[in-house]
Amino acid sequence: MSAKFKEYRGLDLSQVNKDVLKEWEANQTFEKSVTSRKGNPTFVFYEGPPSANGMPGIHHVISRSLKDIVCRYKTQQGFEVNRKAGWDTHGLPVELGVEKSLGITKEDIGKKISVAEYNAACRKDVMKFTGKWKDLTHKMGYWVDMENPYITYDNKYIETLWYLLKELYNKGFLYKGFTIQPYSPAAGTGLSTHELNQPGCYRDVKDTTCTAQFRVVKNEASEFLYNDVEGELFFLAWTTTPWTLPSNTALAVGPQVTYQKVKTFNPYTGKPVVVVLAKNLVSAYFNAKNADVSFDDYQPGDKKVPFEVMEEEFTGKDLAGVSYEQLIPWIKPDGDAFKVIVGDYVTTEDGTGIVHIAPTFGADDDRVAKAAGIAPLILIDKDGKQNPMVDKTGKYFLIKDLDADFVKNFVNLDAYMEYAGRFVKNDYDEKLTEKDHTLDVDISVMLKLENKAFRVEKHTHNYPHCWRTDKPVLYYPLDSWFIKTTAVKERMMELNNTINWKPESTGTGRFGKWLENLVDWNLSRSRYWGTPLPIWRTEDGKVEKCIGSVEELVTEIEKAVAAGVMDKNPFGDFKAGDFSKENYDKVDLHRPYVDDIILISEDGEKMFREPDLIDVWFDSGAMPYAQMHYPFETEKEDGSQLVFPADFIAEGVDQTRGWFFTLHALGTMLFDSVAFKNIISNGLVLDKNGNKMSKRLGNAVDPFETIEKFGSDPLRWYMITNAQPWDNLKFDQNGIDEVKRKFFGTLYNTYSFFALYANVDGFTGQEEQVAIEERPEIDRWVISLLNTLIKEVTESFESYEPTKAGRAIQNFVTENLSNWYVRLNRKRFWGGEYSKDKISAYQTLYTCLETVAILSAPIAPFYMDQLYKDLTTVSGNNALESVHLTMFPKADESKIDKALEQRMLYAQDISSMVLALRRKESLKVRQPLQKIMIPILDKEFHDQVEKIKDLVLSEVNVKEMEFLTDTKGVLVKKIKPNFKALGPKYGKMMKQIAAFVNQMTQEDIALIEKDSKINATINDETVELSIEDVEIMSEDIPGWLVASEGKLTVALDINVTEDLKQEGIAREFINRIQNLRKDSGFDVTDKIILKIQKNEAINDSVINYKDYIASQTLAEELNLVDSCNETEGKLVEIDTNVETYICVSKKA
RNA sequence: AGUCCUGUAGCUCAGUUGGUUAGAGCACUACACUGAUAAUGUAGGGGUCCGCAGUUCAAAUCUGCGCAGGACUACCA
User: Fold this and answer.
1) Angle ∠(A936,A937,A940) on CA atoms, nearest 5
2) CA nearest to A333, candidates A247, A241, A405, A242
3) CB of A915 nearer than 7 A to strand B
4) Catalytic site residue A330?
5) Half-sphere exposure of residue A444: CA atoms within 13 angstroms, side-chain side
6) What are the tens digits of pLDDT across the range A390-441?
7) Motif span ('KMSKS' region) (predicted)?
8) Which of A135, A849, A858, A1136 is most buried when burial is the number of CB atoms within 10 A of its CB?
């Protein structure tokens, strides 16, 4: 144990960061922080797995800081907090990264490169940035077990996923369905809604849109429409995707919408037509200015097209059932089609009020078509499978890829050939650029020529794009496996209400609304690198089997081998019940190995694996179970069990529909429980101008550089205290710098001050504690505040509000501890005897510093650990190896003295006012003054101020304080209505009462003070105002220099007597001498010999205050001399035009 | 398009149950202090509390309608 407190020559937080890291590593502090809590209650934390194939950014620092703060805090509260790191390893980002680096596309997988090789590449690639992640985690001081992480591609991890899938399957939550889904031809996979909801997916794009004319078939059903119509009658329908028009099989109308016929000409062909559209939208298609244009004068090509709205009106219901001719007769649908149907979602907000229906390319379309018995436009491919008109690469089917019989019976080859093989979006064809005509344009032009297009124009609309390939998404019919989350929707909402969300609005609003509009979770992904769906099916799909463990799979394979379906069992070496790594290394549950496994049904039919992978969000949402290899290695004899649910998780708000959702869904469906009880969802990190950070814009902040430059502590402190974590953070390096100077600099200075003098006096912290009641007022004050602080910080951390905790600590350190306590007590520390009072001061300051270190440790783990150790290794109190092993202090209510805190506020205010008065009169603080006077409002106030009298006097350098009780009326008073008291009583009369009070004279005030009431006449009514209804304060004391603020008024005697003048001069001397000492490089404790050259203006002062000067400057001798040797002496200015020489020499 | 969040000094943020002089830090200006000194103190300037309307004796605060920014949701053609 060293006897001296360590003194530093500067504060380098970046270096502290490095030093403390080394110690943690050497001492295994993190491990100890967990093991030392063994046997205590646990606090369960789940780490959301990042994907290690991307670089960590500054935004990762904020969510990881939040996690770390809570976990460290809970550890300090005595909980055992295990923290297992994890890696998200599957999924599209990895695959696309590999495709890019190998220079291949999805089409090439299985051809140019085997699936096995491809997946091996993914496995390798996904972990490429783990080094960087570990490094950042380490440097930023995020304590999490990186040595034993869970990895989602691990066989054991996958085995748990299979187990869970089987559980869901057995509960009937897993089903196969066909729906229209977002599909990315470029990525070759369907996209889940969460993927589609990645930021930036919806973008404004300008597309060619087309309002097409659908010719009404004249028959019995449509006869009523043909009333008064000569020639051709059309329905108008608008689409933003003209490429879906060949797949049209119906038109939808709103059942309540009113429609009208309009007689006009087709603007492109000039042919006379009658068109049907919603009444509300007539004006959108026909300019009222053209209403008078003559039909007779119209020539094809004229810009102004005449029109006439026919009076007859129809509702959507009337139109339902009317047939129309196929718009683009390339391919015949197999079944009923080309009829008007009703759709409840049809509105007249845009388009024509008649909606083109292509059931193969729209979810709503599919739904209403099915309901009306309308067939979709289906193609049969050469494998005999049903398809929409567009293949999976995003182009119209080539004839060669279709079934020959189908082509013969359903396809109009002459018309279709020209368009077969065309990509529906230019983005899908690498050979096409933006300049090339899109299919939309070509089809629109074709329709124009055929008198089938009524209007063609560019239109900007919002369209979803694939989050990885940036290319537009297609809505496409896909076979998929779903989890029936809708079945537990109500329960999920109920359970969600029990979760403590920070901020609350994310839980009730964003997450709650999402749950209200829940759809089934689409689990399928048609890719390669991911968790395979463990379902095997017979070819006809009638028998299926869901596999829930490796053991079960091995057993099933044995059956297949026995039946001769498989040659041998590829997983034959696997030993059931052996959970060693070696055993699990014998199998690989990924593709292509599982694809090669053929099982056999009870009836002896072959069963093949459903080729899909599962959504990666299932991987991460299942981490509570899979990280422990549930249930295989939990709930065993050794007592290990599932750690569930979490007490706490934290991630970015962008995870709301991702991880937060999948955790919650699985927790609800599998265990009928929440998966987490408390959650902080943090906002985004933006650049200092509020823009999103991106590599492209070059405004991304590198976390490594930032930590290297500033150290992690100020970075963490800044991120946490600058704004609430759920608000977006406008990241500004100047903010870190400010935190460093303001908070860490001040704290460091305070410690340095303490260490300097403690070492001089030999204070070690081992001294017997001075009883709190024996300590001076100011010590008890700061200790009171300290305990208030402990309370506040604890409450803030407990309610997951680290921002409040950090701000409270910072305020205490900079305002109360440094700026008031230390500043006012400097004299107690330097000079003078090593008395009880001095020890009390040291002990008080020591306690504050140590407590601040412990309170702040969760947020600033590095510097606080150093500070803590610098203090405790000397004192031996509470001397644990690290601050992170300590217990959080408990507030001692008995030490909290609110009255004391209040009167210290008075002291601060009075001092500040006196200093302001001095400034006004240009009276230096070094010049002592005789008296201040304070009018007394009540006894309590008097008692309070009396107690801090000395403090104030020394702070402002004044000799005495006089209390004025106003009996003689020397005070000028001010009176104000007390609105809070008057409001409820008088309501509407407030304005008049306020006016009455404001015009009260000094006599009136005296009266109300005497009688405690006064009568006011308001609107001929007499109102009795009591003393409680007003606030009275003194404002002025005639003849004195007065300052007044709120309730306080202070008067200052500015008369400088000869005596005061002399004392002032003495203090000037002390100041000059101290400066000389310092300039000469003397030690604080060095004794000196002083000579001062005589000067009329100062002689008396030096003689009268000789002892005072000597004691303050540690002068053994002090003499006035006739002349100081000029080389030895220094010329100093004592007062305006008063100069003399001083000689300072060290005593031998 | 809908939902949610945010909007207070040049910048970053506080602002309790509505109560009458709207605060702090940074930055700026001036002054002071000088044994915590790459600190510190005091004072000053700087505000349409996004706008409008309403409720109320009283609105930064509550309500409604807008505006701006952000996030999220969404294939309405």
Assistant:
1) 90
2) A247
3) yes
4) no
5) 21
6) 988 889 999 999 999 999 999 999 999 999 889 988 888 878 777 788 898 8
7) 692-696
8) A858
Distance CA A513, CA A661 (A): 12
Which two tokens mark A73? 């805090």
Note the residue count of chain A. Answer: 1148
Residue A538, classed as helix, strand or coil, is strand
Which nucleotide minimizes the distance between its C1' and the CA of A807?
B14
- Strand B contact with A745 (CB < 7 A): yes
CA A741 to C1' B9, in angstroms, rounded, equals: 23
Residues 247-266 of A with CB under 7 A from strand B: 252
Q: How far is CA A76 from CA A34, A70, A216, A639, in A?
A: 10, 10, 78, 26
Give the number of other CB atoms < 10 A from CB of residue A606: 16
Q: Known catalytic residue: A695?
A: yes
Q: What is the pLDDT of residues A974-1027, one digit of tens each?
A: 787 888 777 777 777 777 787 788 777 777 777 777 777 777 777 777 777 777
Closest nucleotide to residue A985 (Cα to C1')?
B57
Other Cβ atoms within 10 Å of A779 Cβ, number: 23
Checking each nucleotide's C1' against the CA of A11, the nearest proves to be B38
A106 is catalytic: no
CA A1072 to CA A571: how far, in whole Å?
Answer: 90
Strand locations in A736-893 (E): none
Q: Which residue has the tokens 């430059």?
A: A709
Contact A489, A518 (CB under 8 A): yes
The token duo for A730 is 């406008």
Amino acid residing at A686:
L
**C1’ B73 / CA A181, Å:** 17
Q: By three-state DSSP, how is residue A174 classified?
A: strand
- State the DSSP code for A506: I
Kindly state the tokens that stand for A674: 């929440």
Any bridge partners for residue A948, and if so which?
none
Q: DSSP states of A604-617 as a string?
A: S-EEEE--PEEPHH
Instruction: Please give the Cα distance from A544 to A42 (Å, whole number).
Output: 42
Mean pLDDT of chain A: 86
Contact positions of strand B to protein Cβ (< 7 A): 1, 3-6, 11-14, 19-21, 25-26, 31-43, 56-58, 69-77
d(CA A498, CA A762): 56
Q: What are phi and psi of A1073, to 5 degrees?
A: -65, -40
Please state whether strand B lies within 7 Å of residue A926 at its CB atom: yes
Catalytic residue among A162, A238, A501, A617: A617
CA-nearest of A265, A267, A239 to A251 is: A239
Distance in Å from B45's C1' to A1044's CA comes to 21
Task: Please enumerate in sequence order all residues whose Cβ is within 8 A of that of A113, keeping only pairs 6 or more positions apart, or say none.
Answer: A102, A104, A121
Is A844 in contact with A782 (CB distance < 8 Å)?
yes
Distance in Å, residue A1128 CA to nucleotide B54 C1': 81
Give the distance, in angstroms, between residue A1079 CA and nucleotide B60 C1'. 53
Ramachandran bin of A143, using left for φ above 0, alpha for ψ from -120 to 50, beta for the remaining angles: beta
- To the query of whether residue A730 is one of the catalytic residues in this protein, the response is no
Active-site residue identified among A68, A76, A88, A261:
A88
Scored b (16 or more CB within 10 A) or e, A684-693 reads: bbbbeeeeeb
* Sign of the dihedral defined by the CA atoms of residues A488, A489, A490, A491, in that order: positive
- The secondary structure of residue A80, as a DSSP letter, is B
pTM for this structure? 0.82
A695 is in an annotated binding site: yes
Question: Which three-class secondary structure state does DSSP give residue A129?
Answer: coil
Per-residue pLDDT for A200 more than 70?
no
Between the CA of A721 and the C1' of B46, what is the distance in angstroms?
A: 25
Q: Of chain A residues 588-627, which have a beta carbon within 7 Å of strand B?
A: none
Nearest in space to A154 (alpha carbons), one of A597, A546, A633, A792: A633
